[in-house]
## 1
Amino acid sequence: MIRSRTPCVLFLMLSIACTMTHGQVDKRIIFLSWKNVVDISLKDNLSLKSKSLDYEIQNLETLKSLSYFLPSLSYQGVAQHSIELPVFVFMGQRFVVGTPYMFQHSLTLSLPIVTGGSRWLNYVMQREIKKSLAEELQGKEEETVLNAMQAYYGIILSDELARSAEDASMVAKQNLLQVRKFYDAGTATELDYQRAKAQYSSTLPLLESANSNSKLSVQRLKSLLDLPLTDSLVVVDSLDKSEFLNEYATMSLEHLKTLSRENRNDMKALQYQREAAKSGEQLALGQFTPSLTLIGSVDHAAPIENARVTWSDYIRSKSVTLSLSWPLFEGGKRVLDYQSAKIKSDQMDLLVKQARMGIDLDVEQSYYSFVETSKSLQSLKEALDQYNESLRISNVLYSQGMSSQLDVLNAQLLYTKTKSDYLQGVYRYNVSQLALLKSVGVLDKIWK
């Protein structure tokens, strides 16, 4: 029994080892800078790929609209067996019309000559929709890059906050050890010792939360970049003040609003959609006009008495037909179609007007957010330096018995909070620049 199980156990262990080895090979270490994040997001983001497929579909629809200008060629083959032939009676005599079998082959060429402009208007409409989707695709690229950059700087911020929380916890622990020595020596009170213990204990949940946020921020970026969650990311940048605006930093708010009306992809997309809606209105109006079609046909028919047909039994005929069609009344369907198209056109005018107002508001919000973060960042840096020095002096004075332990705790608490505020200020400053560029419609300047 033991011998029979040995090969199975060996095979199972070998399979597990191969699986673990395969998993280790697939795991990658990816080094990221913000430029790598931009490149990968433009290449691998899933929602961006989906929007790109929408554009490709519309490109095919535009080509399809051009195909309506070409003539259509069709073939039809018919094999007919008449169960009962028609019989006519004339002057007392019966006449059987037709043959029991009929075989026919037809080749028909059809070319619409006049269609009320429907073919051209349909092409114009599909072309405007294609332009609209192209602008939406570019806008989606900017949105994707902005989200990826926010997630990327979010990783750096969460790492810095986790490091700051770890430093705070370490300082609190060192302070606790120092107070414990003073307490054991009788130079510190019970209250000082309990405060030090409480301060250290309060840093542990914050440290755990910061570490969890750091891990989650990495997974969020992997999701945006369509990277396997098992890969390891190594961020090469640090949370430093970056300058993305360049020449846009000195522009006035009104100048930025003017640029946004010229560059915003969503605004351009809506304008193209409005033109498509107007073409649809004209297309609905063209239904009231007649249509003229030229049809050419070549037929080969073989009316015979039995099913054994040969090529010599066929009789060829040719015809050219000019067909005029003009629907005079269809229950008001064309009128309703035109009214519906007119409403859609008016609706697009309202959407364009609403979008202009929304874009101006978006630029203002992004502009004032950037101004606020840029002004507060310097104040946060000065406050951080001051509280760092205060913490150092408090520790020195307390070690020399010239200040209370409460002064040390307060200085430590203020320094930790100010450092977190400064790191978040740097993050907001960098991200606010990206948001301002996107609101103006020129975020692509950072990668082009």
Note: The domain at 115-290+331-446 is CATH 1.20.1600.10 (Outer membrane efflux proteins (OEP)).
## 2
Amino acid sequence: MADAASIKRVAQRIVDTKGRGAEVVVVISAMGDTTDELMDLALEVSPQPRPRELDMLLTAGERMSAALLAMAINDLGFEARSFTGSQAGVITTGTHGDARIIDITPGRIRTALEDGDIVIVAGFQGVSQTSKDVTTLGRGASDTTAVALAASLGADYCEIYSDVDGVFTADPRIVPGASRIPEISYEEMLEMAAQGAKILHLRCVEYARRENVPVHVRSSFSTRPGTWVKDIEYRNTEGRELEGMEQPLITGVAHDRSESKITVVGVPDRIGAAAEVFSAVADAGVNIDMIVQNQSIADDNTAITFTLPGGDKLRALDALHGARERIGFTEIQYDDAIGKVSVIGVGMRSHPGVSATFFRALAEAGINIQMISTSEIRISVVVGTDDVDAAVRAAHTAFGLDSVTGEAVVYAGTGR
């Protein structure tokens, strides 16, 4: 949706789908960098704009896209009707800037579909259930709007269009030989999204899994098949659950450069000290990712290291400094020059040696590991920022994910 030509191309794709007999509801994002430009303008006008007015402003980008797309579709001989989030019945909490969808009452959408119209819905927005104010759902939340609408309308599936041909085994900008994943489970996609893969919004995947909505991720620049995100049971033709070598070992490698690391030094080694540290951080509204506590070896003190979103670092530091006297630690260290690299796959549950393969690949690439975290289907490490790309490539190769066909194409240059 970057420009008029893109809007016309999207309109043609929509009418082609309608022409095949489908009922079509489209959720649209803002054009290009419209949201960023509106935010910059707001900050020029007011250094601290009120959240309510900011939501009123930022939702204009999607409304513009929806109206323009409807015009383009009408010019192709099809009837299209555009709706704002509130007109479409997207009811949310009242938190401006990061509202959550409570319910969708798509009465006007159903009426438009019964009339044979193509429905265009402005994404990223809704209306507060309590205040009736316009709200936004957070950056990237048009994906979530689309899945929520698909669930409320009982759609067969939800297609999400990006500038790559689906979900790949790694970021194509880092690994040109990344392979397209034809199918991926909700569980694996949740881990990929949570660990930095930006192809799908995390809340979108959570909603799709909860409502069991199959999601087809594909490119708006090609007609190639994409990636299906759905409920997958790894079973053979006899219905037996696949185990060991039969299961896919590693599905993909994700990375995230947006985190910071904080180390609280000299924490008294006593019951409840860690709780006090993380209570202070939680009270500041900061989410923690990875945690490591060192064993007490001298003076009955220990050090606690954790990672958190880089944008929350200052709030966390302020909260910890404010609690320093009460907790009794000696100093705080922080590091922004880190990145997280994760390998993800359901095969970890039944296949030994994944950790050894991962860590050996990093060692052979000369990469130092600063922190390690695991889940049932994921292993994550923190490395220096300068080592992130090399770590992704090393892990991708070590688990045999490299494609010889070079099929990973980023059509618009963002990999989103």
Note: The mean pLDDT is 88.
